[in-house]
Amino acid sequence: MVVEHTDSRPKLFDRQGFARIYAYSRLITDVILTIATFYYASQTDTWQINAVSGIVVVIALTTLIGTTLIHLEQETPGLKIILWGFIIGVNAISIFIAGLGFFAFAASVILTTLVVIVTLPEDQVRILLLGSLVIGLFSLVLDMVASTAAFRITIQHEMETPLLISLWIALGILIIFYAIPVIRNFADFPLRTKIMVTYITMALFSLGVLGTISTLTIRNTLVSGANEALYAAASQTADSVTDFFKTNLSSIEAESKLTPLIDYLLMPADQRAGSEQEASAISIMRTLQRKDLDLLSYKLLDPNGTVLLTSEDLGTEGGSLERGKVYTDIPTDGPAVSDVQVTPDGESAIIHFTSPVTRIADTSLSAYGILMISYDASVLQNLISNSNGLVGEDSFAVLFDEYFIHLAHGTSPDTFLQTVTPLDQELLTTLQAQGRLPNLPEDKIFLDLTDLGHHLESVSESNNEAVYFTSEDIATGDRLNQIVVVPLPNALKPWSLAFFQPRDTFLQPAVLQTRNTILISIAIASAVVALSLAFAQYLSRPIISLTQTAEEVAQGNFTARATVVAKDEIGVLAETFNTMTSQLNELITGLEQQVAERTGTLEQRAQQVQAAAEVARDATSETELDELLYQSVNLLADRFDFYHVGIYLVDVHNKHAVLMAASGHLGQLLLQNENTIRIGSNNPVGYATVTGEAYIATLGGSDLEIYRHMMLPDTRSQMSIPLQVGTQIVGALDIQSQADNAFDDNDVAILRTMADQLAVAIQKTELRKEVENTLHELESAYGEFTREAWRGFTMDASRPMGYRYRHLRVQPVRDQSQETTEAWQTGQTIIMPHKNENGDEDELSSLAVPIKIRGEVIGVLNMNFETARPSEIPQQMIEEIASRLSLVLENARLVEAAQKRVQMERLSAEIIGRIRENLEMDAVLKTALQEIGETFELNDIEVRIGSVAMQAGSNGDSGYDENEELFDDGDLNLDALIG
Question: Does pLDDT of 234 surpass 50?
Fold first, then answer.
């Protein structure tokens, strides 16, 4: 006995299927990455991101080319293009973005391994794996030795951890997706491949997870520590600025209560000049100015903001340029500090502190004046510069106002009064008018630090809390900074202070740790690979030897025997294989003979199935019943080489099966004799048409007799198959052969399917004819209805025959031209040239186009042209207009008819309603006569009620006496004469 072994393990993908799925999934992924990188590049203006976008586009193009080749069934070159593009591209991206080296190495090596071991030949697998390893190691080394190179950028902090996590999650999903066919087909891989893949996968996965967690932990710790240090430095610097403000506000508030200043302000204005009080006030202000070198001047203003005295005043004779200057928008309700103001010459900037001048104990009266002190704005720069290096190397602070204007920069003081991002023109003009920005060109004011500006905008939404982010700055160039921004405390001004430190300064330990981790991982991975190769070679050698012996046996060498080198499971397997080979050698001869016999039978059956399918297809393509039947019988006779094929259809009485089609010359003679068989008779056709079951009859070997017509004397086998649709039997397919026992159950199964399709085709053909006849009858009936409706419509004598447009006027038409008559009678477009008095054609012509509704002509559109013959384009246009006009006219007629019916029904309802208002006979009759006469404007209406005998009068004589009864035997006779 020969036992056929089949592999019952499910295979998820074959080589070609997996190649296509990999290509299509990569194409979708690359398109999404292209869109994402281009969007990110549009948000950041760095050439590295633009370079990454270009690399992603190249990867997508290589994927597209490879997918096209795979679609053209060139899997190997297509996959090589996709894989090389991915390996080179993903590692090229890590060249421009620091921190992605390990990810690029893992992605290129793992994904390449998963794809190639399933799809590519063994020689191509080695090349691609070696290439991915070499290129991936280059990315790792580059990340270790050139992480801070000028041509590389670092991922921003708020995106760094989420981005890396997202990339590793995406890589994990891809690994799982591509690992499914590897796992499902893992048992089919060579043993050495199984061992190597297992060891390498476990080692790389473990090392990758540990390395990533270690790196992320160290980086997060360093970033957290840097944030704390930056926050402390920012808070300290902000407190120093606030202390400066508070000190000066407290000082000026106390100084504003000095008696000499109050005495001067209380003097009449015309007595102040040259007075002793004036000299005393100037002396006091000069003395106060000497307390701080950065203090420019003291000024005494009246309540309206006009300068009365300054510490630089020389008295009445010398005067002062500041005298008479007016300051607006100065608070008078308490001490205040102003915004930084640009001086009129634009060379410097000033910040003012003001306080209303009042007596110490007097809080109810308004201020006598205002005391103002002016500082050079560089005092803020000095305060900010003193904080440089508080956190560490290259750390510095920057002071911003509410519009993100640089008020002080720790390392770049030349950015003073420059904005982080461009302002809109209206705001820029307003700030310049207020003196908060110099009147300089925009390129001298705007720094265009877009990313920094976006982050600073979030400070106003932070509810006076610190905001942490990473961004670039004008002072550090392309170096990425860790930044903390805090608002000034106590809300003296809506300003904020930011403290910066380059990330590469405090992340250096993380870089060193990552480098060490990668080196250790590479060393461990190399050792694992070497050990896996050695163990794979040692463990697989006996299996490989046994496999080679099995291949020899499979090629026909049944004398080959496996070498038994040990008594373990592999040795037992080798002995069992040798025994099996001996038995197989004995059985192979008998098996080949059986296979040859079965193959011949299957080939014959396959040919019959193919022939039956062709017959069914060709038969069902016909639409005419006679042609359908004729084609079917001849196709069956030709394809199966039958002696006779006939199709019987059940008659309308369901009593006889009538021969409707037969093959060959003998079949035509049978058709001429109108051959019929009674349903239920003792033969295969009668049996099939009454039971709905197929029947096979042979000479002397069946219960039913073979139907042997005298014109078919050589019939020795007969098979009748019912033509059945659902439960309805429409006929039978009769097949006869000259051979004994020519049919079996397999023939019935094959031809029964074809007979069912043929029955459906017959039924569809008959139904199609019924539908066509019904449609034709409906079209004729509807056409007649349309014709009668338009005949009644045009019988109205009050309507003109038509309308004519001539000389900008529309006039009714009462006559009918010759071309109009011809177009109406023929239903065709008529073009008729005009003739002059001599009978010759002139340059005029007429065009008559019939207006049709459902084939019925209802009118004619007639036009005159000033040419001998109108062009084809206007003629086609006019015919299209006539077609559209016919629909509009039909709709108008239907609407008018409906309106008339509605009007008649309304009038009838009104008349009946008024008649029903009366209950007396006389009143009812009189109301009826009056309403009918008024409604239809009739002159004479008469109603007669009574029996026929009463109506014998003439000439208006009623013919009955008033005293006679109006009712005869309960009958009411009514006759209305309308004149």
Answer: yes
Q: 10 Å Cβ neighbour count for 708? A: 15
Does an H or E element contain 256, and which? none
10: left (phi over 0), alpha (psi -120 to 50) or beta: beta
Alpha helices in 641-739 (DSSP H): 664-672, 684-691
Q: Which H or E run contains 155?
A: none
Which pair of tokens denotes residue 675? 């051959």
Cα-based distances in Å from 857 to 778, 812, 954: 18, 20, 49
Q: 814 phi and psi, to 5 degrees?
A: -115, -15
pTM greater than 0.85: no
The answer to whether 386 and 321 have CB atoms below 8 angstroms apart is no
Cα dihedral across residues 618, 621, 625, 627: positive or negative:
negative
Q: How many residues does the chain have?
A: 979
Residue 595: predicted pLDDT: 73
Strand partners, 469: 483
| 447-456, 529-538, 541-550, 631-640: least confidently modelled range | 529-538
* Average model confidence (pLDDT) across the chain: 78
CB atoms within 10 A of CB 491: 10
Question: What does the DSSP assignment read for 677-703?
Answer: EETT-SSHHHHHHHH---EEEETTSSS
State the average pLDDT over residues 816-820. Answer: 77
Q: Is the pLDDT of residue 144 over 90?
A: no
SS3 387: coil
- In DSSP terms, 971 is beta-bridged to 968
| 602 band by pLDDT with thresholds 50, 70 and 90 | confident
pLDDT tens for each residue of 287-313: 988 888 888 889 999 988 899 999 877
Are 605 and 747 in contact, with CB atoms under 8 Å apart? no
Predicted local confidence at residue 962, as pLDDT = 43
- Encoded tokens for 603: 């080939």
| 323/311 Cα distance (integer angstroms) | 11
Q: What pLDDT is stored for residue 814 in this prediction?
A: 67
DSSP-based three-state secondary structure for 338: coil
Highest mean pLDDT among 200-209, 545-554, 680-689: 680-689
CA angle 822, 824, 830 (to 5 degrees): 45
Pairing of strands 496-502, 644-650: unpaired
Choose among 175, 63, 188, 193: nearest CA to 122.
Answer: 193
Check residue 350 and give its pLDDT: 92
- Please measure the distance between the N-terminal and C-terminal CA atoms of the chain and give it in whole angstroms: 113
Q: In the Cβ-directed half-sphere of 319, how many Cα atoms lie within 13 Å?
A: 5
SS (H, E, C) 754-817: HHHHHHHHHHHHHHHHHHHHHHHHHHHHHHHHHHHHHHHHHCCCCCCCEEEEECCEEEEECCCC
Kindly tell me if the per-residue pLDDT of 976 is higher than 60: no
- In one-letter notation, the amino acid at residue 815 is D
C-alpha distances in Å from residue 978, one per residue of 38, 906, 936, 957: 91, 21, 10, 16
Q: Which two tokens stand for residue 901?
A: 């019916």
CB atoms within 10 A of CB 546: 19
**CA angle 814-816-820, nearest 5°?**
140
pLDDT the model gives residue 122: 64
Six-digit token string for 154: 């670092």
Distance CA 229, CA 387 (A): 13
Burial of 216 from C-beta contacts in 10 A (0-12 / 13-18 / 19+):
middle
What is the distance between the alpha carbons of residues 731 and 650, in angstroms, rounded to a whole number?
A: 5
Q: What is the pLDDT of residues 396-453, one digit of tens each?
A: 999 999 889 999 999 999 999 999 988 888 998 899 888 889 988 888 889 888 888 8
Across 399-413, 891-905, 921-935, which has the greatest mean pLDDT? 399-413
Q: Which two tokens stand for residue 497?
A: 């202070």
Q: Outline where DSSP puts E strands in 389-466.
A: 396-400, 406-409
